């Protein structure tokens, strides 16, 4: 390798770095931001509003419930409370990779109703500028638009907690016909 | 004389010897007679002397009686006088008995007897009677008178008688000696004459016969007649000799004619015991057969000799060829000998190298023993390594468990950080700082997770490597076991090799010895071939000589044919 070429390359890098540092910060006031909890379902990135999430727990001691719809995976005992675990992939009709110990439960609470959403992985809480959230098309990755708040350019789907909690399918009243 | 000659020889002997014996017997009888006469004369002389002594004694007794008077002695003397008278009478009677043959002595004895009778009567009747009566003087007168003269006459007569008897005996002895001499000479002459006669009649003809037998013994058959004209044994012997001689001459004549080749003669045996005649007859018959056979044989011989001659010519040619072949073989044997010498040297070299190989294989055996020991040590080390690897595997398992725990803790930390972020978001503006801390915690948890993942991947690599090492150790252990087995096998092989090499060495030594013997043998063969060569050369010469000899036989056959033609059958 030619030494002059190496010198030229490092010179270009150093010049670029100097140009960026020389920029003056923007005078615009900081855009209003919302905080979302990001998780993945079938390799797709989804998010919930952090303010609406109670907490996140690891999936342990899942007890399946017979005579329930397939999206209701079962019940778990969290600190003495029974919490129903909803599988959004079943709920939304997404591909099913099965469940492991690595799954997490995102706990939601509304008016004494506490349910857990099964998530493949939980990425964490991040802040997103509201301007970046765009209305969702009719369906995104198989999820109906009625459950979606918006979509970021990074294909992060922000789900609507209220819509999910208010879904009539969650009210389960089934009999097992003898 | 002719009659004597015709007597048997035994009779002749008995006659001659009997004559001699008769002469000897006559001589003996004469001697006996003479001896008897001489003895009688001698006895008469003795008796006369004894009578004289008795007279003397008697006279002495009478005179003693005249002189003494003792009664006892006188009685004794009387008894003695009676005894003397009786003994004198006995002597006188004995003389009479003896002298019966001589008349002169007989008359003298009779004279003496007459006188003694008178004397005895006077003595007994007068003297002794008077003495008993004690008339000594009358007795003395009677005794000394006429009685004394009678006594003296009787003593002279007794002496004369004795002398006469002795003289007579001496005369008889001398006459007997001369008679013996004459008769002995006659007997000797008769014996000589008889001996000469017997010798002449027996030994003479036998001598002439002996001469004839000697001549016959040396083959000279006498042609003259041997007959003696006598009928005794000697004559018969002569006649038998003559017949034998004639027979022999006849046989000789026949033999002569046979010798001249005339086999047509015939012979009749003299008797059924004629051995020679029978033998001659069968000889002639056999000779006829033999000559006939001989004719045939000679014909065969002649043709055979021709064939032999041809064959010997061929034999000579083939002997020459054999000599050439033997010469070539001798050369070949010489080459073989050189080859055998070379092989002997090679065998010795092989023997030496086999000994070297034996020592090398011994070293190899020691080396494999050392290898086996080393392999055992390696096996122990491999077992130690395997144990270490197992321990390492267990420990990496433990590390994996620890990593899993750490991973779990990391997940929980991250979850806690997420929950903290959620709580901070709920707190709004007041929770901003807390949100930053929660973010930091989450970042740490993330880093921890990544580190754990790295540890896990490293641990996986370690486990893989450990498994590989365990496998490799296992394989190594197997390989070492195999190595031990193979080194044991190699040891055994080398052991067997040592044995084989030792045997090979012995075999090589034996081969060396054998090839040495072979060399000696080939030398002997070479010598033998030289001898054979000489012999075959001699064979060639002999074959040539045989050829000449066969030609000679052929000529001989021709000649024999001519000779056999000379025999007339």
UniProtKB/TrEMBL annotation, chain A:
InterPro entries: CheW, CheW-like_dom_sf, CheW-lke_dom. Residues 33-170 form the CheW-like domain. Pfam families: CheW. This is Purine-binding chemotaxis protein CheW. It comes from Rhodanobacter hydrolyticus.
